[in-house]
Amino acid sequence: MASECGQPTGSRHVQILLGGTPMMEKIVLVTGASGGLGVSVTQAFLDAGATVIGTSRKIKQSDFTSPNFAALPAEISTREGARVLVDQALGRFGKLDVLAHTVGGFAGGQSIVETDDETFQRMLDLNLNSLFHILRAAVPALRESGSGRIIAIGSRAALEPGANVGAYSASKAAMVDLIRTVALENKDAGLTANVILPGTMDTPANRKAMPDANFAQWVRPATVASLMVWLAGDAGRDVNGAVIPVYGGDV
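The chain above was modelled as a monomer; its predicted structure follows.
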């Protein structure tokens, strides 16, 4: 993934989406920053002028060339891991303005009856529990900013479950309710929380897994990344508790 990263190329496009308002003073935490979508999200925020803290288990400083990027490897599957990450971010930058949560995973191919305990728990850990832990750690700091933003990546399956993906769909549906609850609980502090539900993403991993699919109908990571940047900016301040479908050509 590091080879796909380079000097900002889309800053003018991002500035237009932001209504001309840069994010020069924003501190953004991107979880899953080295993943298929996380790379695009991290770069989009860097292009918009934000200082970006990128985290994943194996994130490296060399993954992004921008001087406004800081790599903080972390394990957010536990409450302690998420707390340590946020404490490190606050210790280094003094505040947190945006949480862009892109961590997630997929498992399918089994009916509910056939789904084993390990698979079900893994989907909960990746898609729900990781969000729960990082929210508990980050929300207090985001409230203090006075205009905090939380944008999480869910899945179309949260609203439209299919056969043989029950564990995945259930974990993503619960994730949606968690974000909407946070939106209600923190609106008094000017904090917004929204969730984006993409259809199939056009990532290298998905192309490898589904080589015969029509890639033209898939959702481009850059599209989702631009939407996340917009929601994090001043133009997105009136959007709160929203569940936003992004389905590409497969409507």
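The longest strand covers residues 192-198.
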